Amino acid sequence: MEDSKDRMDHHADIEGTTIFDGKMAMKGYALNKMCFSFNDAAAREEYRADPEAYFDKFNLNEEQKEACRKKNVLDMIAAGGNVYYLAKFAGIYGLNMQDIGAQQTGMSLEEFREKLKKAGE
Amino acid sequence: MAKIIGGLTTSHIPAIGNAIATNKQDDPYWKSFFEGYPPVQEWLNRHKPDVAVVIYNDHGLNFFLDKMPTFAIGAAHEYHNADEGWGLPTLAPYQGDAPLSWHIIEQMVNDEFDITSCQEILVDHGFTVPMQLFWPDRGGDMPRVIPVSANTVQHPIPTIKRCLDFGKSLGRAIRSWPEDVKVVVLGTGGLSHQLDGKRAGHINKEFDLMCMEKIVTDPEELTRISRHELIRQAGSQGSEFIMWMMMRGALSEKVRKIHQNYSIPISNTGAGTMILENLD
Ligand SMILES: [Fe+2]
């Protein structure tokens, strides 16, 4: 059976992990909605042409805009971003999951890959 | 009557689709991963299922946070793939089996599982990568498909117990279909990985191997793992293991493991492949 702690609060303490629950989904709704729009190639073009206008089109708040300007994934998560949608934002800049893994852990891409390899041994 | 011949598992990371698109199967990095698939293809070639029920999670192609069904079942004649934001080539559509889909939906709702039925649903890499791995040449033997999507994007996600129970109900629904069709059930995603946060890159080989063992011999024991514990052990996106549990529920109580492969790391993930053959 599930323990009550599990049911009560998904912001449970797992180090380096944000549980994307209702609170985060509300907080990040505008940011994630913008990222979801990037499924459409025309939307990606519109964003590239004028990112600031595109932020406003989706009503991003200042924290979300600043995280996007800096392409800082940890800040985007703190602002309510969900990684599945953020992956579409990252793709616009040619960044894949290993690139953003390296960025979030403060490692070089080589160091991050080495860490993954070690975990597999 | 319809018969479930067995279940297959595989990871479904987008990088695999890229490797296929660029013919990297023999690269040193990919070789041990792709070597896990010919035994599955041979098994499928021998049994030739008519229908594949593909259990996966949508990663933000079809569903957004505006409406997020916990369990959704496709009920279309055809399923289309589309751009997920990376501009990759779109794959040809997959043929559905709408009458069987509706039968499953009716039976499962009767069985008190509240299903979101989808007459249109775009299928993303979670669905297409397993299809590419198991039916690489998309020949005439490729079965009709029924996509089943579980929410792993936004918490609360369903519990592991609920997922196993869902599979049991799905299995009953399939077996009550009067036509003589052979059905294979795919559990996709996982195993351990975490893409987000300071713990990005977390993988857990020991936990993955334990799950691959217990899912064969004692899936009920795995239902004791809480969602919190699953994420602690397997990482934020390791929650995708719930789709393996949904698959397992649809099989017979005892199954025969025909084949297993585990490659780590593939991209950021522990990648597992299995054939579980039904015993009844
Ligand atoms: Fe996935």
Which helices and strands appear, and what pairs or packs with what?
The complex is a heterodimer of chains A (121) and B (280).
Chain A: H1 4-8, H2 22-27, H3 29-37, H4 41-49, H5 51-57, H6 62-69, H7 73-78, H8 83-92, H9 97-105, H10 109-119
Helix pairs in contact in A: 3-8, 4-5, 9-10
Chain B: E1 3-10, H1 14-21, H2 28-34, H3 38-47, E2 51-56, E3 71-74, E4 78-79, E5 94-95, H4 98-110, E6 116-118, H5 125-134, E7 144-150, H6 160-175, E8 182-188, H7 205-217, H8 219-222, H9 227-234, H10 241-249, E9 255-266, E10 269-278
Parallel strand pairs in B: 1-8, 2-7, 2-8, 3-6
Antiparallel strand pairs in B: 1-10, 3-7, 4-5, 9-10
Morphology call of chain B: globular
Q: What portion of residues of chain B belong to β-strands?
A: 15-25%
Strand tally of chain B is 10
Output the CATH homologous superfamily of the domain at 18-94 in chain A: Dioxygenase LigAB, LigA subunit
Which ligands are bound?
fe (ii) ion
Report the major sheet of chain B: 8 strands, mixed
Our estimate of the beta-strand percent of chain A is under 5%
According to CATH, what is the class of the domain at 18-94 in chain A? Mainly Alpha
Low-confidence stretches of chain B: none
Order of helices and strands of chain A: HHHHHHHHHH
CATH superfamily grouping of chain B: LigB-like
**Could you name the CATH class of chain B?**
Alpha Beta
